[in-house]
Amino acid sequence: MAIWHSNPTVDEVNQSMGDCMPTYLGMKITEIGDDYIVGTMPVEDRTRQPFGILHGGASVALAETLGSMAANMVVDTSKHYCVGQEINANHLRPVPDGTVTAKASAVHIGRSSQVWEIRIHDPRGKLNCISRITMAVVPVPPT
């Protein structure tokens, strides 16, 4: 049974990213499962650090993007929205090129907070980063 409040398509989620950081860094959502979301990001000049490998900040941006999108897909956005409170990441191995793939899975979905784990793999399938994000569930202010 799916955990999502609504059933957005991959195309709808990608369009919702608009013209901001995820789009600029080439992120794309590729799959929405019953309780997870998967996305990719290219490792190229705009996502590398000066030493020629994937920038840790780009990995964290991918993790936060997936965790935030997933968290907001769980709630009724007419009543609540989710914002990041804390994120951490362990960078395990360098990625010089190709496309990294990330999967966000819920660890905890509560009334006032959510915790998501994001695992990022290199093109060979090796884990290169593991991240965890805590999201605050905030009521939409009355209008």
Descriptive notes:
The protein has 3 helices and 6 strands; from the N terminus they run ααββαββββ. With 143 residues, it is of the alpha+beta class. The chain has one domain (10-139): Thiol Ester Dehydrase, Chain A, CATH 3.10.129.10. The protein is globular. The model has no long low-confidence stretch (mean pLDDT 96). InterPro entries: HotDog_dom_sf (IPR029069), PAAI_dom (IPR003736), Thioestr_dom (IPR006683).
Task: Please summarize what this structure is.
This protein has 143 residues and is of the alpha+beta class. Helix content is 21%, strand content 41%.
Q: State which percent range the strand residues make up.
A: 35-45%
Task: Please provide the count of β strands.
Answer: 6
Number of helical regions: 3
Given helix and strand content, the structural type is: alpha+beta
CATH class: Alpha Beta
Enter the CATH topology name: Thiol Ester Dehydrase, Chain A
Fraction of helical residues: 10-25%
Strand order of the largest sheet: 1-2-4-5-6-3
Give average pLDDT, whole number: 96
What would the principal axes of the Cα set say about the shape? globular
Low-pLDDT segments: none
Q: What is the CA–CA distance across the termini?
A: 34 Å
Number of domains: 1
Radius of gyration: 15 Å
Largest sheet: 6 strands, antiparallel
InterPro entries: HotDog_dom_sf, PAAI_dom, Thioestr_dom
Protein name: Hotdog fold thioesterase
Organism: Microbulbifer elongatus
Keywords: Hydrolase
